[in-house]
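Fill in residues.
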């Protein structure tokens, strides 16, 4: 069923169309034909938001509001046939679109209840969310909130990978250790930022986990992510993909592309451009 707000929106749209329809002169048959089509807007809205039953209620109210137009003195026989056809189509749309919405909702309930084990406890679907300290990771978090915040049998692991090869960059082990600790603190802080974003927007705190992986020497980030996915404890992966040139992809590889090709689970990729800094005047 629809919420009170959705009922109000449906009746307001229906009332506006009906009032405008009443104010049109009876002789303006072309405008009446146009207004006749607008009755489908609140019916479609009710069908999509509430399903078959609310749509049939709105269609019935539309029929009552439409009845005076059957007695227009200047209407032709063809116009009356069009009126009857429009009314019939309102109910047909209610049945088809509203029925489709109801079927989709029932399918969701079937999937929801099928995620129960023999004790009736929901089986948690596990999402691996690869985070790389970019604005695209924040967009990926927004996508997750939009799709899975209200679904209680999902949990997510925020997964980040420390860089390798620091020993080859810094002259001493102390310097490389300090840099690794600095990067670890930075990535942990960003993971916590994503976690807090999810929790503050309604995801249960116990359903958001954090993991920072330490790769082996010369191991790439994609190797670590694929190794984690191959443990088969995840149902799918979520990760950002940065916009890079073909030359950059050839020389340095693309984490998202490799994971999509080799992952043993479905992968959702959030693609986009990194924001560029505005040039500063000298």
């Amino acid at each position: 069923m629809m919420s009170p707000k959705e009922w109000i929106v449906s009746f307001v749209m229906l009332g506006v169309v009906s009032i405008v329809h009443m104010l049109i002169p009876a002789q303006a048959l072309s405008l009446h034909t146009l207004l006749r089509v607008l009755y489908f807007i609140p019916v479609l809205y009710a069908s999509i938001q509430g399903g078959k039953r609310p749509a049939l209620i709105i269609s019935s109210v539309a029929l009552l509001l439409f009845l005076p137009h059957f007695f227009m003195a200047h209407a032709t026989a063809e116009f009356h046939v069009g009126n009857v056809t429009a009314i019939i189509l309102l109910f047909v749309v209610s049945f088809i679109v509203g029925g489709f919405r109801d079927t989709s909702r029932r399918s969701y309930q079937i999937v929801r209840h099928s995620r129960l084990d023999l004790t009736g406890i929901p089986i948690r679907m596990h999402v691996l969310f690869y985070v790389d300290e970019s604005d695209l990771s924040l967009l990926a978090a927004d996508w997750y909130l939009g799709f899975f915040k209200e679904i209680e049998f999902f949990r997510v692991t925020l997964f980040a990978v420390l860089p390798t090869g620091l020993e080859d960059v810094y002259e001493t082990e102390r310097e490389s250790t300090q840099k690794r600790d600095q990067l670890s603190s930075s990535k942990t802080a960003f993971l916590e930022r994503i976690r807090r974003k999810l929790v503050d927007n309604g995801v249960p705190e116990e359903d958001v986990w954090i993991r920072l992986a330490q790769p082996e020497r010369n191991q790439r980030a994609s190797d670590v992510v694929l190794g984690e996915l191959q443990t088969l404890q995840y149902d799918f992966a979520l990760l950002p993909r940065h916009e890079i040139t073909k030359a950059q992809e050839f020389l340095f590889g693309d984490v998202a592309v490799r994971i999509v090709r080799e992952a043993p689970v479905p992968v959702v990729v959030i693609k986009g451009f990194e924001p560029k800094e505005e040039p500063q005047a000298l």
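The chain has two domains: 4-114, 125-272.
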